[in-house]
Design goal:
Number of domains: 1
Order of helices and strands: EEEEE
Helix content: under 10%
Strand order of the largest sheet: 1-5-2-3-4
Strand content: 35-45%
Shape: globular
Radius of gyration: 12 Å
Largest sheet: 5 strands, antiparallel
Amino acid sequence: MKWVSVKDSLPEEGDDVDIYIQQYDERWTDYKYIRNHLNQQGNDFFEPNKGGLCTVRNASHWMYVPEPPKN
């Protein structure tokens, strides 16, 4: 898996991804990409899949969530 800059491309709407916030030097896991929220062009963000109150608009990079290990 490789990090993808949000300047280069974005995931498909609803895809599960991990995001990187460059200004904080942090990786946040298990987010979902939402495109054109409330039908507003360019109103794109990532929201947590499970709980959490923080939607993110300032992610610098994203990558698909890896598959879980198999027994």
